[in-house]
Design brief:
The chain has helices spanning 16-39, 49-57, 108-113, 134-143, 145-175; strands at residues 60-64, 69-71, 79-85, 88-92, 95-100, 105-106, 119-123, 127-133. It is of the alpha+beta class.
Length: 176
């Protein structure tokens, strides 16, 4: 059987130019959806539309079900995660930390210092995550300089909280 007796009978997707155009439209739509998700995240709230589009281009959105272990203490870290929807629990070597919610992020420490993961992060609800892989993380920081400032502020707050916990523990030990 010969299905393509006339060129007009061919699906437009058999035409290489039409395939390219279709892929561009689909890619644009996916990028737009990612940009819309990013715009809802406080970490990215100060980004311009162009910055959001660049971030969307180098990231992916993944959905995981409740109970999924997203990172594990001691494992190599190759991804930065930003929570779009859902909640996760945080377990560190010294105990549980505050749960993370939409707009919170994790995984940046391993990408910054190359050390293994410092926490086990588990989805407590179904979650939608924006993920940036190691090879794109530095590009992300270069393309959205305001983002660097926001990440540093969050990291500083986390260090201060840990210092407060450590000081409380030391104070408690010195009283006994």
């Amino acid at each position: 059987m010969d299905f393509l007796q006339h060129p007009q009978d061919a699906s437009p997707l058999h035409d290489p130019e039409a395939i390219e155009q279709a892929e561009a439209v689909v890619g644009e739509h996916i990028g737009d959806a990612r940009s819309k998700h990013l715009a809802r995240v406080p970490l990215f709230s100060g980004c311009t539309g162009e910055e959001l589009a660049r971030i969307a281009h180098i990231s992916k959105i993944v959905e995981s079900s409740a109970g999924t272990i997203l990172t594990e203490i001691g494992a190599p870290g190759n991804s930065f995660f930003c929570i779009i929807d859902g909640r996760v629990s945080v377990q560190t070597a010294i105990g549980s930390a505050d749960p993370l919610r939409p707009g919170d992020f994790f995984g940046e420490m391993s990408l910054l210092d190359g050390e293994p993961r410092s926490a086990t992060i588990t989805a407590t609800t179904d979650v939608r995550l924006l993920i940036v892989e190691r090879e794109h993380f530095w590009r992300l920081l270069e393309e959205a300089p305001d983002l660097v400032r926001r990440i540093l502020i969050v990291l500083s707050r986390r260090v201060r909280r840990l210092e407060q916990v450590a000081n409380s523990l030391l104070l408690g030990l010195s009283r006994t």
